Amino acid sequence: ATADHLSAELTKIIATKPANAVLDFSRLKMFDSRAIGLLTAFRTKLKAEHPGARVMVAGASAMIEKAMKLTRVNEIFPLHLSVPE
After folding, report:
1. Residue range 16-68, pLDDT digits in tens
2. What is the Cα 2 distance to its own chain's centre?
3. Within 13 Å of residue 12, how many CA atoms lie on the same side as its CB?
């Protein structure tokens, strides 16, 4: 239900042409295949602009972190405890 909102927010971020991105997942309650697809597309677009760019995830709950590890998404989106980290 929130995938369209996520897509719109990621599009706004891409428009700013950042060199790297840290995505704050601290309030995220659900992580499904559509979210994985949106994040992967976001990473692809960012790396097209900046080949060395990194997209990191911060503040994921234990449940979200487990889902990311089970799907091996954490291998392309490094996990951090907090945004400052």
Report:
1. 999 999 999 999 888 889 989 999 999 999 999 999 999 999 999 999 999 99
2. 14
3. 7
Write the burial class of residue 72 (CB in 10 Å: 0-12 exposed, 13-18 middle, 19+ buried). Answer: exposed
Helix extents (H) in 1-85 = 3-15, 33-49, 62-70
CA distance 81 to 85: 7
**Rounded distance, CA 48 to CA 7, Å?**
18
pTM above 0.90, yes or no: no
Classified as helix, coil or strand, 36 is helix
Using an 8 Å Cβ cutoff, are 45 and 16 in contact? no
The tokens describing 67, both together, are: 């889902």
Q: How far is CA 46 from the centre of its chain?
A: 11
Residue located via tokens 């291998």: 75
